[in-house]
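Bit of a strange request maybe. I'm writing a small parser for structure token strings and I need a real example to test against, not something I typed by hand. Could someone generate the tokens for this chain?
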Amino acid sequence: MIELHLPPLRPQQYALFEERQRFNVWVCHRRFGKTVLALELLIRDAFCHAERSPRFAYLAPLYRQGKVIAWDLLKHMTKDIRGTKHNEAELRVDLMGDRRIQIFGADNPDALRGLYFDGAVFDEYAQMRPRIWSEVVRPALADRQGWATFIGTPMGHNHFYDLYQQAQGDAGWHTACYRASDTGILPQDELDAARQVMAPEQYAQEFECSFESALVGSYYGAYLDTAREEQRITRVPHDPSVPVHVAFDLGVSDATAIWFLQVVGRMIHVIDYLEASDHGLEWYAKVIKEKPYTLGRVYWPHDIMARDFSSDGRTRFALAESLGLKPGVVVPQGSVADGIAAVRMLFPRFVFDQERCHEGLQALAAYRREWSETRKDWTDHPLHDWASHAADALRTFAIGYQEQETVQVHSPTRLAGTMPTGLRQGFWFR
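Reply from user aminoacidic:
Good idea to test on real output. This should exercise your parser:
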């Protein structure tokens, strides 16, 4: 018998604990106690699970968030359990009987590959890359028939919203929504004080769990709303008579994002989107060639000119051209603010395919400024998370497309070498 001395659950938390199914989606206001509930689920199940060597995962949007928010709390909650060992390097708690709870960051899906889990909690799933569930964690639950719980606060109509809607009424799924005005966890005077200093949409999102409020700090949220109102997020068929331009954001240790676009009159049809990780340029070239598109220009970020040591020291640009990804336009490195302004300038001309670009559209909606806890205000630069890759790729296209008239044409020999300093004054095109 193991006696667990865990923090007492609030009535609302206890209700969730009792009513949960194999899969759960819980929408909860700020200060509800989501992290405490998540860790208590993992600890209790670690000792109640019938499988041998049970494994459980707590996922935060970023690894450093998991370390700051959950690690100290997990250590505190397990410190008095006999036989417990804490692995600081791996943010892992080893319990007696080869039971294990580990903290992961959704920003590093590779750390999860090849593992099995008996249970997993996604804390603030709205801030994670959507594919972390379907491509990484869901398969890891299969052989042990493990459970998963998604818990967090809304961030507009993104993948958390989609999952919450889909789960309602599905067998084996449990959903719940707890608003601050209903739970009584926070005193009314505290809510009133928060309402006075927060934007209405921010308060509605954070404390009243509103999915309808615009994402605060979003760069493109209003532009996407306008596109929907004007029916520019719809079904956009591929026109075989028009070349398809592609725009990259290159990932080294994270994801690579690619937009596929056709210029039709004054409108720009965004017909497809691809995002993947753990692949080289050869894989992306193969996927692009397999699509039924006539390749137009390939817009590259400036780091395409870096040398690829896996290909005899050639630049990645030279490798890409040898794989058929040409003609290439290398977009010079500029300020992020100018790039965002370029995307906003083109937004009224964008028409997105709502199905093939679904993941990219979710990322654009989630792309937002970073919040400074020190200043209690929004910073002037974007938050780098899973949404950055799609936004950076579209920014590459916007800058390159708007400045085509200033393209400078240079010889293949010079272009394939090291990027000259003069690149910042124009575009290298071949």
